[in-house]
Amino acid sequence: MSSESFQDFIGQPKSREGVEFRMVSAHGRQMERMLGLGVGPLAAGTVGLLILLKVIQRLRHKQNLQDKVVVITGASSGLGKECARVFHAAGARLILCGRDQKRLQEVVEELRNKTYGKIQTYSPCTVTFDLSNTSRVSSAAEEILKCHGHVDVLINNAGISYRGNILDTHVSVQRDVMETNYFGPVALTQAILPSMVDRRSGHIVVISSVQGKISIPYRSAYSASKHATQAYFDCLRAEVDRFGLQVSVISPGYIRTNLSINAVTGDGSKYGVMDKTTAKGRDPEDVARAVLKAVCHKQKDVVLAGLLPTAAVYLRTLWPALYFRLMASRVTKEQRLKEE
To answer: Which Gene3D superfamilies match (predicted)?
Structure first.
């Protein structure tokens, strides 16, 4: 092959490559300009569309509570009483449960004469029983079902707290807390559940705690009962999904109620103190409205806690060694304060 023909041979591709390269570059710059002009509006439009779809989805799945039968345990005080108020205002047919009939009746009298515009309200029913007496729960469930023939929403709210050192706590106290906070709600849920399955309709709510996700010192019995509650209702949610039933676990942080005053100690006596953290806790009305929202929008797992407790939930999962170190240092700090 001659040198000229060789040059022609290697030169032509170079020329074509150069032309193609310039064409590709020009096309690329044109695409960049088009993208540069359109990325902002495109991104904004995409976000707007996603928000719109989310709103539509929420509206489609929003449950109307007018005339729905709602059972609330621990309804005579605290969060249970606030739940009674907000669900009554939503037009629900309430069945209020608790240990003290007189206090339950006071709540009924308060709600009976309240009106909310065009919303039809109803005088609540009451069923008195001690949730920690699981042998009584079955007959209580029968009374509950006789009120309106079925239950649409069961809110397991009743519970007891605990303050104490494990070394000074009798195992009977651990068992008593579990009876009220875990076995009681489980027994009531399982007594009501078959009727919901038969109707292929129902929503079960349990008021747990952020301490059902993380544990802090001097709350062993309480945290253990709430961890068990979280696990049980997570399993329940999966098992009843095929029947169209909903399960919501609500995990608040501190709520401004008498929970700490009524807490038990290691020997079973009343704690009798309003903790500073409890006194500065969330307004129970705000928590009750969050429970209402969870039911209306069929939310599965709701954490109602501040920044630090929420961060601790993630820290326990992502960096457990650091979390354990922080909890140990908390014990040391509290012991030092007691000694001072």
So the answer is: NAD(P)-binding Rossmann-like Domain
Domain coordinates in residue numbering, the chain: 1-58, 62-305, 307-340
Q: 6-15: string of b/e by CB count within 10 Å (b at 16+)?
A: eeeeeeeeee
Class of domain 62-305: alpha beta
One pLDDT digit (tens) per residue for the chain, 340 residues: 444 333 443 344 444 444 444 554 555 565 555 545 555 666 666 667 766 655 455 544 467 999 999 999 999 999 999 999 999 999 999 999 999 999 999 999 999 988 888 899 999 999 999 999 989 999 999 999 999 999 999 999 999 999 999 999 999 999 999 999 999 999 999 999 999 999 999 999 999 999 999 999 999 999 999 999 999 999 999 999 999 999 999 999 999 999 999 999 999 999 999 988 899 999 999 999 999 999 999 999 999 999 999 999 999 999 999 999 999 999 998 888 777 6
Nearest by Cα to 327 from 166, 165, 217, 189: 217
Question: In 3-state terms, what secondary structure has residue 54?
Answer: helix
Specify which residues 270 forms β-bridges with.
264
Residue 204: alpha-carbon gap to chain centroid = 12
Burial of residue 315, with CB atoms counted within 10 A of its CB: 0-12 exposed, 13-18 middle, 19 or more buried: middle
Pairing mode, strands 125-128 and 93-98: parallel
Its sign, for the CA torsion 249, 252, 255, 261, is: positive
Q: How far apart are CA 79 and CA 45, in angstroms?
A: 41
Query: What backbone phi and psi angles, to 5 degrees, belong to 70?
Result: -120, 125
Coil, helix or strand at residue 149 = coil
* Type and span of the H or E element at 139: helix 134-148
Catalytic (active-site) positions: 222
How does DSSP assign 105-120, residue by residue? HHHHHHHHT--BTTB-
